[in-house]
Design brief:
The complex is a heterotrimer of chains A (459), B (299) and C (308). Chain A has 459 residues and is an alpha/beta fold. Chain A is built from 19 helices and 12 strands. In chain A, the strands form 2 sheets. In chain A, strands 1, 2, 3, 4, 7, 8, 9, 10, 11 and 12 form a 10-stranded mixed β-sheet that branches. Chain A has a two-stranded antiparallel ribbon with strand order 5-6. In chain A, helix 18 runs antiparallel to helix 19. Chain A is globular, with a radius of gyration of 24 Å. Chain A starts with a helix and ends with a helix. With 299 residues, chain B is mainly α. Chain B folds into 2 domains: 81 residues, no CATH class; 209 residues, MetI-like fold (Orthogonal Bundle). Helix content of chain B is 72%, strand content 0%. Chain B contains 15 helices and no strands. In chain B, helix 1 crosses helix 14. In chain C, helix 4 packs antiparallel against helix 11, helix 9 crosses helix 11 and helix 13 runs antiparallel to helix 14. Chain C folds into 2 domains: 32 residues; 230 residues, MetI-like fold (Orthogonal Bundle). Chain C is mostly helical and 308 residues long. Classes of the chains: A alpha/beta (459), B mainly alpha (299), C mainly alpha (308). Chains B and C meet through helix 1, helix 5, helix 6, helix 7 and helix 8 of B and helix 2, helix 4, helix 5, helix 6 and helix 7 of C.
Chain lengths: 459, 299, 308
């Protein structure tokens, strides 16, 4: 037995050494970071000379429309072929990380402000204003929180197709049934109204959230509650990115305490912790709850005439809290370093893609406007607020002045750094534990702060 | 004959137990199949009905032909767009099949001679190699997923059937070898010794005498290899990037997280995805149970 | 061990020694090649990575850090809790699986007619992919549209739908229940095989002596099943520790970290915390734990054989 072990150990060590030779010493190597500049690319006015095929990765939303947009783009640019690939939104980040880490990225893809810093600092994405000067001008017309979400190290990495605010939504019919005429303006109001609605039997759980750990909108909804409790910025981090939320007088503490209260008193549906956006919306549609926080575009779905008995009764209110501030986020088209490495033809084609999909065709933001009008998606491009078609379309499901007001109160998430994505995942689990009562609110916030500091120091 | 009351209660109790077990085991299958024949509005009622009140084949029709089910157009408890991803289940299952069959064949081809060598022949390092092969299965797949990814990348085999065939073979061959070795060990040597006396070499021995004798074992081993490959999720998830090679479990898991796919469509995909293993499990159950039993009892 | 034999000696003992050896190596080589290339080599590659820092978003710096990754994993915030959770999960699942297997095997071994239906469907849960099983159960347990809630509610057993997967304790129980459903049949088949080995004379003798069902079970069946139960125990323990597919599909580790088993964190380290080094280090630790358990089993089995 001893001799066998001896032999096996030697075999093991030998194999270990052998496996190291003959392979790169740095597995898995990816592409160079953007600091290493190649020659300045040709201006994009030069037409694409050779046919170019690029793959475009998206999360699975509205694929019919995406395919149609691609078809139109290809009709205008016969030399360019785009092949579409989609992954579920809930798995998107993890899937793309795997793909990037193994050096097999797509050319074009959707990006989100959650991970821009993470991916740009790794050198996986290519800055747009450097390689596509033709889209640089669009940045001037974009809402500040959206631009912030697409910028890393002073460079812009995307053109936006969708930007939205986290809105506080409520079922007006149920609210009135409970005897209230106006939406709650503060967390205390919300608590009182929810309590009354429950007592009267209107809802078993008046409040619902989509706070599954896989749901990307979870941190945004939580953060929007925090922003609303505080006037001014730096609700979570100060100017030097040090955490300021783990004190007993912080906005975050108020929010955690409130959440714990509504959870224990049965006002917040416990199922919220395993719910993702789609179930949340279906639940609201069915009238199972009165209050929720969700991305604004869901209002179009909720108020669609055929959606159910409460169609048309859903309304937006300002985020409950003294400042009514909320979170604005942005999703955008980005191009990977692979495009740059592939040469000027690919760069030119990618720039045309960006121009069509996130910019203007014949003076109009065609694609973005289409999403807004057909699906109710919010947008970052400010001129669209004045477009009559858009206003009319939005007016069908929402109160346009309220939407505008929310947009002015929206801020980008704080702490957008290369390690935000990692911290975010950790924070989700911690917030859930705090809501469940497995640890105190202060402990939750302290854990989150400690993790942040740890990640920051490791950079 | 008087029926003893104690025997009666015993009989009732046991039959009840069997009934509960049948419900526990088969219930989920019946529910998913039933749900695949219901429109989403019917499915979202509280409580849902086990037997469809308005059974419809619309969901299946959508998956195979792309014709949108009528319930989607009439009322929307769903979002207004329907994802095409549900239609990927058919090509995905085809991929699963191709890969699993190839793995089955490779197992038969490679594991049988190896098992014979381990079971019958005496040679140096026999035990060492045996333990080496069995020990290869200890490492959690997660750790080798990315190194495997890099290897496959450098072999330019990314997103092909071949990459999964190779890794699934590597995963299933150890079990096949172990299983067949035990099986062969328990078969009396008489026939082979007669063959040796007659002057057969080992290959002839294997082909003409041993294989016919261990046919049940081979069937069981093939079934295991097929099922393991067909059900494999982790490597299939991380080593495939498009429907060209994505297998059933990968597509099913992706579809289930896709908000634009209704529960009815998810059920259709689950139902279609479980048909081959279910058929295998029902038709081959004698061989499978015998095979599994023999590994336990002959050590 | 005696002194190594000379070739002449070997040929004398077994005239076919050389051809046997040649044939053996030739037969084993293809299988070995596939396994070495596609399992062993990646394993060593991975082990090597674990000694370097490897953060996915920093692809250009891989300094050698020795055992630091392992240290980071063991001192991380999740290690102890996750091990405890995995331990609880393993004990509960394995116990559940064995009890399930025993009950089903005993039933299958009787002559009750209804058991024939059970025989046909028994392997179904084991045969389907774990992802499919997890999704089926996730949906059945859904807090708004799940059929389980529907049935309980219709029967009047509950007043309102239960959020099975959003409650830390219920989520664990749900995971265990799905695990038992998936793994139980295999245990049942194994145990049935063991039952069928027990000669009928034992039971007949017991009947003559007037032993009731329970006594027979306790003093005859159980002891004779010991070796089989041990094998099932080890196999199921390994499976429980390595559970990933079910967690991935049903709960994603939540709520909080209540269903975040240790193999889930191996995934999370790589894909969420983006640290390949620690992810692989954790996987190695899990493999070592599993190996130790298997060695303990081997020891136990040897003593079993010695005793019997």
């Amino acid at each position: 037995m001893n001799r066998k072990l001896h032999v096996l150990t030697i075999m093991f060590i030998v194999a270990l050494v052998v496996s190291g030779c003959g392979t790169k010493a740095t597995p898995p190597a990816t592409t160079k970071p953007p600091e290493v500049a190649t020659e300045v690319p040709v201006a994009t006015e030069v037409p694409v000379t050779e046919p170019v095929t690029m793959d475009f990765v998206v999360w699975s939303y509205g694929l019919d429309t995406v395919n149609d947009n691609i078809k139109n783009f290809q009709a205008l640019n016969p030399d360019i072929t785009i092949t579409l690939k989609d992954y579920s939104w809930l798995d998107y980040h993890d899937t793309m990380v795997g793909v990037f880490a193994a050096n097999n990225p797509p050319y074009l893809l959707y990006g989100s402000d959650h991970w821009l810093n993470e991916w740009a600092s790794a050198g996986w994405l290519a800055p747009l204003d450097k390689y596509c000067p033709n889209v640089a001008e669009y940045s001037n017309e974009v809402a500040p929180y959206a631009l912030q979400g697409m910028t890393y190290n002073g460079e812009v990495y995307g053109v936006s197709y969708y930007a939205d605010t986290m809105d506080f939504m409520y079922n007006d019919a149920l609210l009135q049934q409970g005897g209230f005429t106006t939406a709650p303006a503060t967390l205390d109001d919300l608590y009182t109204q929810a309590l009354a609605l429950k007592a009267q039997g209107v809802n078993q759980y008046p409040i619902i959230m989509a706070w599954s750990q896989k749901e990307g909108a979870f941190p945004e909804a939580w953060t929007s509650l925090v922003f609303a409790q505080q006037e001014g910025g730096n609700a979570l981090f100060d100017a030097d990115l040090n955490p300021v939320f783990n004190t007993a007088d912080s906005a975050a503490f108020k929010v955690m305490e409130w959440l714990r209260k509504v959870y224990t008193e049965g006002l917040l549906d416990p199922a919220s912790l395993s719910m993702a956006e789609i179930d949340q919306v279906k639940s609201m549609q069915a009238g199972a709850h009165t209050f929720t926080i969700a991305p604004q575009y869901n209002m179009a779905e909720l108020n669609k005439p055929a959606s159910g008995e409460f169609a048309g009764k859903f309304k937006i209110a300002l985020m409950p809290g003294p400042s009514h501030a909320t979170v604005g986020y942005v999703r955008f088209y980005a191009m990977t370093q692979k495009v740059v490495d592939a040469g000027p033809d690919y760069i030119a084609a990618a720039c045309k893609f960006m121009d069509y999909f996130g910019g203007k065709t014949n003076g109009d933001y065609t694609v973005v406007k289409r999403w807004a009008v057909e699906n109710g998606l919010g947008f970052a491009q400010l001129p669209l607020f004045d477009d009559p078609t858009v206003i009319a379309a939005f007016g069908k499901w929402g109160d346009v002045p309220m939407i505008k007001q929310n947009a002015t109160l929206a801020r980008a998430k704080e702490g957008m750094t290369p390690w935000y994505g990692i911290w975010d995942v950790y924070a989700r689990a911690e917030i859930q534990k705090g809501i469940l009562g497995q640890q105190s609110s202060l402990d939750t916030l302290n854990n989150m702060a400690t993790k942040w500091v740890e990640l920051k120091a490791a950079q | 004959m008087k029926i003893k009351p104690r025997a009666l209660t015993r009989s009732i109790f046991l039959n009840l137990l069997v009934l509960i077990l049948i419900v526990y085991i088969a219930g989920p299958f019946i529910w998913v199949i039933s749900a695949s024949f219901q429109g989403e509005n019917e499915l979202l009622k509280k409580p849902p009905s086990i037997i469809p009140k308005n059974p419809t084949t619309d969901n299946y029709r959508y998956v195979f032909t792309g014709q949108v089910p009528t319930s989607y157009e009439v009322t929307g408890q769903l979002r207004s767009r329907i994802s095409q991803e549900a239609r990927l289940i058919a090509p995905a299952l085809k991929n699963s099949f191709i890969i699993a069959i190839s793995v089955l064949l490779i197992n038969l081809l490679f594991a049988t001679p190896a098992a014979y060598a381990f079971a019958r022949l005496r040679w140096k390092f026999r035990n060492g190699f045996y333990n080496f092969i069995l020990g290869s299965r200890l490492m959690p797949a997660m750790a080798i997923a990315i190194p495997y990814y890099v290897i496959i990348q450098s072999l330019k085999l990314m997103n092909t059937h071949l990459s999964l065939i190779l890794v699934h073979s590597a995963l299933t061959i150890p079990f096949s070898i172990w299983f067949l070795t035990l099986y062969i060990t328990n078969i009396p040597r008489d026939m082979e010794e007669a063959g040796l006396v007659d002057g057969c070499n080992y290959f002839q021995l294997l082909k003409n005498i041993v294989v016919p004798m261990i046919l049940p074992g081979l069937v069981a081993a093939s079934a295991f290899a097929f099922m393991t490959s067909y059900n494999e999720f982790l490597f299939a998830r991380f080593l495939t990037t498009s429907i060209a090679s994505q297998t059933g479990p990968v597509i099913i898991s992706s579809i289930s997280g896709n908000p634009d796919v209704s529960y009815s469509l998810i059920s259709v995909c689950l139902t279609l995805g479980m048909i081959p293993p279910v058929i295998l499990a029902i038709t081959m159950r004698k061989w499978l149970t015998e095979g599994l039993s023999s590994t336990i009892t002959f050590r | 061990m005696s002194a190594p034999l000379t070739i002449k000696e070997k040929l004398r003992r077994n005239p076919n020694w050389f051809t046997e050896g040649l044939y053996a190596y030739a037969s084993v080589l293809p299988a070995l090649l596939v396994i070495i290339l596609f399992t062993i080599y990646p394993i060593f590659y991975a082990v090597r990575i674990s000694f370097y820092q490897n953060i996915l978003t920093k692809p250009n710096s891989h300094p050698f850090v020795g055992l630091k990754n392992f240290h980071d994993v063991i001192t991380s915030y999740y290690f102890k809790n996750s091990l405890i959770n995995t331990g609880i999960y393993t004990i509960a699942s394995v116990t559940g699986v064995i009890i399930f297997g025993l009950i089903v095997a005993l039933l299958l071994n009787t002559k009750i007619r209804s058991v024939n239906a059970l025989k046909i469907i028994i392997l179904l849960p084991w045969a389907i992919p774990a992802v499919v099983a997890g999704l089926m159960w996730k949906w059945i347990l859904n807090s708004d549209f799940g059929i389980l809630n529907g049935i309980l509610y219709s029967l009047g057993a509950i007043e309102s739908y239960i959020p099975f997967l959003a409650n830390p304790i219920l989520a664990k129980l749900s995971l265990i229940m799905a695990h038992i459903w998936k793994e139980g049949p295999l245990a049942a088949i194994f145990i049935l095989a063991g039952l069928q080995l027990i000669p009928n004379e034992f039971y007949e003798a017991a009947k003559i002596d007037g032993g009731g069902d329970l006594l027979v079970f306790r003093f005859i069946t159980l002891p004779l099943l010991r070796p089989i139960l041990l094998v099932v125990l080890v196999y199921e323990t390994m499976t429980a520790i390595l559970t990933f597919d079910l967690v991935y599909v049903m709960t994603g580790g939540g709520p909080g970290d209540s269903t975040a088993l240790i193999s889930w964190f191996a995934y999370a380290e790589i894909y969420k915390f983006l640290n390949l080094g620690t992810g692989i280090a954790l996987s190695i630790i899990i493999a070592l734990i599993t190996l130790i358990l298997i060695i303990l089993y081997m020891r136990a089995l040897k003593t079993e054989d010695a005793i019997s």
